[in-house]
């Protein structure tokens, strides 16, 4: 298994992406610690993982609360002799469907502030433990670089996330910690997996398992030379 004996924290673990990634990590042998603001949906994800013979733990946590995130990371590291993987899939509370000309500045900036805050908070909490052992992987769920109107602060937030990840990678790389972010063409709704995103080159958009598989690869030793890297899962919607 690619992640045998690894310890992974998945923030936003009850969302569609976070849950899929958590199951993927567990399937490949990692012990997964799920966090989120509401315990019951986290327990549902943990139950599915345990039903498949995986190991999962649950904690109620606000990813914008730096002290709480630090305490959680300290607890996980003490129980597991360290943290190997940290994945942030928390939502950004964005407002879409309105042109920027008509939006209040607070509505535009809210997702930017939350995205940067949760990424910095979760990544630094885990990284403090990773650098002590000289290894670890920080992963972030990002968003598109395509030009789509009326997405409010979403694209601004995703661009900011990429900047944060690059900065973290530059500072943590010499200490043995890798940083990467995943780019996808929006969240696939049930039944949309076989339909391409408009403008994409491939005929199928990624499903949640595709995102999870990419996260597993990025977290594994197979990707040991990848950092400051974006994993492009857009099916050609964004061309590199």
TrEMBL record:
Its EC number is 1.1.1.-. Keywords: Oxidoreductase. One of its GO terms (molecular function) is oxidoreductase activity. InterPro entries: NAD(P)-bd_dom_sf, SDR_fam. It holds the Pfam family adh_short_C2. It comes from the Bacteria. Belongs to the short-chain dehydrogenases/reductases (SDR) family. This is SDR family NAD(P)-dependent oxidoreductase. It comes from Streptomyces coerulescens.
